[in-house]
Amino acid sequence: MKWVIGWPLLFLSLFLPEPYREQSLAVQTIICTFYQKMYTFQLVTFFFVLSYFVETKLHHILSVQILHHVVIVCTIIVQYMEPKYQYFCWCLVGWSTRWLGSVNMYAQPVRTLLKCIVLLLVLKGKWRHTRQCNLKDELKWCWILFVHESLCVFLPVQILYEVYSNRVNVLIV
């Protein structure tokens, strides 16, 4: 159901005019409540609904855009270095998106759709199956939705870190 109805309805909401966008998001959130286990589409739905209600403004001033991206980069670094402050940082990203945001998810639906596809590919890649991932782990990757596509050059760095950050104790006989 999540692939048959959930994801397509979420993607469709990007292209629908009002009030249909709101109605599709409402149906999407209801679909999310059917699942007891947390899935990626629920996290992405949360960010879509948050973006819808926050009504981010696009800022075209370079210094404002740079500051917003610095906040997001710091959030991801804190997510890895000091996870106990991750909710503080994500709250900061939410406000930064509102005040300093350079990307509005609904203003350019094709861009957002492509970002969602990149996010899905990253979260469902073969390398992610090496260990059990939860929603907190997937939250680390949601920066893809809030930044300009050019920052996706950092994806390989983050993927390599995820793959090689876990130490494996090998007993040599």
Topology:
Layout: H1 2-15, H2 20-32, H3 40-54, H4 62-81, H5 86-100, H6 109-123, H7 135-139, H8 155-164
Please provide a written account of the structure.
The protein has 173 residues and is an all-alpha fold. The protein has one domain (2-164). Helices cover 62% and strands 0% of the residues. The protein has eight helices and no strands. It has helices at residues 2-15, 20-32, 40-54, 62-81, 86-100, 109-123, 135-139, 155-164. The longest helix has 20 residues, at 62-81. The model has no long low-confidence stretch (mean pLDDT 82).
Keywords:
mainly alpha, 173 residues, 62% helix, 8 helices
Short structural summary:
This protein has helices at residues 2-15, 20-32, 40-54, 62-81, 86-100, 109-123, 135-139, 155-164. The protein has 173 residues and is mainly alpha-helical.
User: What sort of overall outline do the alpha carbons produce when their principal axes are compared?
Assistant: globular
pLDDT < 50 stretches: none
Sheet with the most strands? none
Q: Report the radius of gyration as a whole number of Å.
A: 17 Å
Structural class by secondary-structure content: mainly alpha
Portion of residues within helices = 55-70%
What is the quaternary state of this protein?
single chain
Proportion of residues in β-strands: under 5%
Q: How many beta-strand runs?
A: 0
Euclidean distance between termini CA atoms: 49 Å
Summed up, the helix count is 8
Number of domains as seen in the coordinates: 1
Order of helices and strands: HHHHHHHH
Indicate the mean pLDDT: 82
